[in-house]
Amino acid sequence: MNFETQWLQTFFGLYNYWIVVALMMCGLFIVITDGNLIKKVVGLTIFQTSVFILYISMAKVTGATAPIQIEQGTAVYSNPLPHVLILTAIVVSISTTAVALALIVRIKRAYHTVEEDVIQRWDVKKRRSEKRSKPFHE
Amino acid sequence: MSSAQLPILQVIVPLLAAPLCLLINHKLLNWLFTLLVSGFSFVVAALMLWQVSDTGPLSYHLGGWMPPYGIEIRVDQLNAFVALLITAISTLVITSAHTSLENKKDIAPGKHTYFYVAYLLCFAGLLGILVTGDAFNLFVFLEISSLSSYVLIALGRDRRALWASFQYLVMGTIGATFILIGIGLLYMKTGTLNIADLAERLPEMADTRTIFVAFCFFIVGVCLKLALFPLHMWLPNAYAYAPTVVTAFLAASSTKVALYVVVRFVFVVFGVDFSFTTIPLQAVFVTLGTLGVLVASLVAINQQNIKRMLAYSSIAQIGYMVLGLSFGSITGLMASLLHLFNHALMKGALFLTLGAVFYRIGGVSLKHFQGIGRHMPFTLAAFVIGGVSIIGMPLTVGFVSKWYLLQAAIAQGWYLVSVIILVGSLLSVIYIWKVVDAAYFKPALVNQAQLKEAPLSLLIPVWVLVLANLYFGMDTRLTVTLTDQVATQLMHIEVLP
Predict the structure, then answer these.
(1) Structural domains present in chain A
(2) ipTM (interface predicted TM)
(3) Angle between helices B456-474 and B330-361 (to 10 degrees)
């Protein structure tokens, strides 16, 4: 086998990790660049999902079964532990999304917008007016 | 009560108390119940520390499964020490919570139950991070504490609290996911999640790129939670707009727990050898620590809102703690742990003082502080002592930790760093003085005839913390001996794996 085919084989053999990296970067990119809060949450979810795939694919053994022993013998089975861990991580991710969406609902009520730049403009304005105003001791 | 059950009680009691609060659903009863739970956790932490110092680490096997297969709860001097600190602060903060939350400007009426539920969950999560001996468990507890602290921050009356909470949520989730990636890569390589087991297996494969990447992801993730400069963007707004009780609790506990995680992973799991020779952690921590001290202190000087000012001061103090870690020496680690303890005492005292001022005046900007020194002498005296402690004057705790930090820097021969430590102190003189100047030397703004001293229920916790500031500043035997022992143990793990 010459060098080039070997390199290609490694490249495509690790395809699951390329998917993980691509998804992770997409997610992070959306979180950082998008001004819409809902889209930020979507990006965050994509980012988290990529990590789930990382965990799940690393536990998979090619040609292996689920870890259930049907008959005596040495069957090859996939590692169940990362799958269980990810079950927990999915629950965490869902609760994070739920809290984030609940916050967005309240932000929408308080600011009448879900755009980051508008919210920040409001806040800057408010801080300036606070600096000028005189407080009255009650 | 059998002492073997102590480690699990530390987590399970606040965790189960949280839903019970929802059932009780009564302002006063909820407060008493939370106070009871917090006090109980404090007693448990004290017993654990006493026992651990006596007989060595405690290990509790969840569900009777032996580690490394089952989840282990492991308590040694390091986490028992931090747990004692967190539970003590929590008890004091909760003591003042009932009166403080009466203020309608602090929290919406009718939201008290949610406050106590989220508070107990956050408390349980933080204690869980401290006592657990399992890396994945640590992630789960971290998320429990983070999710509940987003809720706590969003309880603030100002609408900016919502935005601050959302920003913290985004940053915090990215941080937690980074930690998850780090733990995943570690598991991939070692096949274990038990922290003690990880520490044992890692040296063999320390030179692989997977471990290198795992380290980077993990440390960056925790530093986001720690709010190390330049990852601190979420902190000032979150502290400034959250209810004052929440700010006092979070400032004194959540960043401390994150620092504990850094210490545990850098010194125990990865080992000093790996962290400081294979990875240029020293250079990174020194740069970020010193920059954090300087930049955050300078920004603090410019703040009008005192809560924001103290939040920036917190970032500077985190810089000091990280600087202490970066020396990689016993004195440095000791200074860092001492500062962890001392900073919790002084920031707890200062934020609770702000709570008392807020209760009477309804605002905490510099203008609100004008001329109140004569009307609220005890509150402002507490602020002055807390401030002096931040500056690091002798006879206060701030001096003790800065003294050890300076010693560590000089022993290393890093004179520039020692100068920066002193400059940071001088900068803190400026921002603390601005408040003192406003409170004592500026004329009052409006009629202050009705302005009274803060109620006793707010003053007592403040003064307990202030006296602790003075006591541990003068009698350093307990803290210094303990941190010295812990630091020696941690540094020896490198020699005897």
Answers:
(1) 3-61+76-131 (1.10.287.3510)
(2) 0.91
(3) 160
